[in-house]
Amino acid sequence: KSCQKPVDKYIEYDPVIILINAVLCKAQAYRHILFNTKINIHGKLCIFCLLCEAYIRWLQLQDSSQNTDPDDLIRYAKEWDFYRMFGIASLEQTSFFLGIFITLWWMTPEMLKRKSDFILLLKALLLSTYGKLLLIPAVIWEHDYTPLCLAFIKVFVLISNSQAIRVTLNLNRILPWFAIFFGLILENGVVCLFQKMGWDV
Fold this sequence. Notes:
Blueprint: H1 15-23, H2 27-35, H3 42-64, H4 75-107, H5 115-127, H6 135-140, H7 146-169, H8 174-196
Helix pairs in contact: 1-2, 2-7, 3-4, 3-5, 4-8, 5-7, 7-8
């Protein structure tokens, strides 16, 4: 029903081809993954992506406060900085998803009537953040273009989020982008709040 075709063509495809098509943000590949597979890695993928994001932020924080003393007595304070970055990244992602849910519930309340609809959309959003895994090679192959790479990764994740919303709720292209825009506004509001509190974000 969700594929709007007699048969889901991806049933015959190799998982690698399905993954490549998902990376290319093809709607049919997203439909196949969300509706016709039993993937149950949403939570683990979310935690891993948040750890990658926290590590990038923590690394940038370390670069800004470089200490050459070999007897560094504040090593544990630096470790707590990593945990703080993980918490901030988690709050930002939560506010981003919350902004999306509020917008979609306000614009199309008939689409999100049941709890199962919310859960399916949450799973789709969590799976569509897989692009944050690209942060790992961005850190490993550190070079002068790292900020540009991080911006491209952010854009890729937003495009994936848009496709996930579109496929899950069977919407046109405009409404998912509107929801993502509102989610970004809420996320940036949280960032501004942390900055006013004097935290390095």
